[in-house]
Amino acid sequence: MKRLGLCILALALTACIENDIPYPLVQCYIEAIAANGLSGEPAIDPAARRVVLPLEETTDIQAVEITSCKITENASVSDEIVGVHDMRTPLYTTLAIYQEYPWTIEAQQTIPRAFTVAGQIGSTEWDLANLRAKVYVGFEDLSHVEVTSLKLGPAGITTMSCSYPDIADLNDTNLNLLNDFTDPRKVTIKYHNHLPENWTLQVEYSEIKVTLTKVAPWTHSAWLYADGLNGTKLGFRYRPEGTEEWIEVPQEQIVFNGGSFSVQVKGLMPETRYEAVAYSNDDLTETYPFTTEPVLALPNAGFEVWSTPAKALCPYLSKEQAFWDTGNHGSATMGVNVTTNVDDPRPGSAGTTSAYLHSQFVGMGVIGKFAAGNIFVGEYFKTDGTDGILNFGRPFATHPLALRGWIKFRQGRIDQIGSSPAGTTLTTDDMDEGQIYIALGTWTPEEYGGTAESPVQIRTKPSDQQLFNKNTKAVVGYGELTLTENIDEWTPFTIPIDWRDKTVPPTHLIIVGSASRWGDYFTGSTQSGMWLDDLELVYDETDLGENR
C-alpha cells in the first residue's frame, strides 16, 4: 500500500507539472548544393530560404540531377533533394531540427535565340509563351526575305524542320530556302527527348523606319534607346529645349545591336529640359522631350544633429524630420547606446561631430545579446522581445553614381557568436568585419513588409528572421564596402553603384553601416568600432576622382 501511495503521489505531481520549457531555436539551412549541367555557382539565399540553380542551355531542365546537398548538421529533410528532378517547377522541401523551415529550389535556364533578316528594323520581338517571333522590315515584298540567322533551341542539340517549304533539316547552310514570308512560316524544333515545339516566324512591313523607344534621364546624363533600319546610318541628336542647333552624338559612343542602338549622353545639366531625336539615314523620329533629375543630398550626412527623445540617442531632432535611425531604441532599454555622436570630425569637416558605431554585448552578466554598432536610412519600428524590427528605406528617386564619405574602423576578433550565415561557420578564431552598403530600388510595403515611407522590413528574431536581400528583383542599383582590416586614421572612401537596370527609376534609397557585418546573426566582436562622417552622393562622373 505504501508503494502504491507513493506511485499515486508521483502521478499527481507529474500531472501538475507543465512542460513549458521551450525548444531551442535552431535555424536550418541548405549550406551547399551541387548539380550536373550548371553554368555557374548555385545562388543560396538564406533569408528567403531559396536556392537558384543556373543551368547551361543544353541541360535538360526536365531531368536535372542534383548530385549533393549539404544541410545544417542534425537537420532532417521532408523531401529528398539529391536525385533527378523535373525543374520546370520549383522543388519544395522542409528542413527541421526543432522547428520547420520551408525551402525552395528553383532552376533558371536561358536559351539564347535568334531570328534576324536583312533589312530588319530594330530588334526581334519574342513571345516565348506562344512560341512566336516577329521582325519588321522596311520593304513591302515579303516573298524574297533573306534570313540571316535562326536559332530557336539549345546550341548543338536542336534539330529544325519545316513543311513549307519542305525542309527536313533546316540549318545555317540552307536558310536561303526559307524566304517567302508572305504568310507566317512554321518551324518545328526538337531537342532532348521533349515533345516537338512548333514555332511561328513572322515578317511584317513597317512604314516607320526609325523609333525612339525609350529615354531614361539621370542627373548629368540620359540613356537613349532606338530601333532603326539595319544597314543604314543610325544615330541620335539632342539639344537643350528652346535652342535651335542639334548636337550630334558621335558614332563611336553608340552601341549597335543589329537595328537596335543605344547611347548614354553625358555632360547634361541637372533639372534641365532637353530634346532628343533618333535617325535612320534621312528618316527622323518625332522630337522626344525629357527633364534631367535633380541633385538630391543626404540629410544630416555629417551626423551633426542628434536628440534623446527617450533613452535612445537618435540621429534626428524629431521623428517627423528623421532620415537616419539606429538600433539604439532596442539597446537603450538596457541603458546602452551602441551608436553615438563623438567630437571627432574628419579633417577639414565643417562640422564638429561624427557617428561612432560600437558593437557591444547588451545585458546583465551572461543574460543579454550582442548588438552591432549600426546606422541606417529608415526607422526603428519596434522591439519584439529582445529582437529588433526595423524598416529600411526613405523615398528617393534619382540615379547617383556612388556613395562617398570618410571612415575609421577598429577591427576586433569575434568574441560573441549567435549563429552564422548559411554556408559559413564563424568561430572565435575569425576576425570581425565591418560593412557599408547602398541600395536603390522599387520596394513596396505590400511585398517587403514595411511602410510606404520605409518599405523593407528587417526582423532579427531567429524564428522569424527576415534580412535584407541585395538580389531581389526590386533592387535596381547596389554597391558595398566590406572592411577586413583596421583603418586607424580618417580615410576617404567611394562605393560605386552598379545600376542593374538603367531605365527603371528607383523609388527608395537604403544605406546601412555596421561595425559588425554579421550582427543580424548576433555574431561579432565587442571591440569592433566604425566612425563615419560627411557622407555624400556623387552624381557627376567628373567628380568621382575627387575627395572633399
Structure description:
This protein has 548 residues and is mainly beta. Strands 26, 31, 32, 33, 35, 36, 37, 39 and 40 form a 9-stranded antiparallel sheet that branches. The longest helix is centred in the N-terminal third of the chain and has 15 residues, at 2-16. The protein is flat, with a radius of gyration of 30 Å. The chain starts with a helix and ends in a 10-residue tail after the last strand.
Write a brief structural summary.
This protein is mainly beta. The N and C termini lie far apart (91 Å).
List keywords for this structure.
6-stranded mixed sheet; 548 residues; disordered N terminus; single chain; 3 helices; mainly beta; 9-stranded antiparallel sheet
Look at the structure and give the mean pLDDT: 91
Low-confidence parts: 1-21
Q: What structural class do the secondary elements suggest?
A: mainly beta
Number of strands: 41
Beta-strand percent range: 35-45%
Helix content: under 10%
Enumerate how many helices there are, as a single number: 3
Main sheet summary: 9 strands, antiparallel
Radius of gyration: 30 Å
**Overall body shape:** flat
How far is the first residue's CA from the last residue's CA?
91 Å
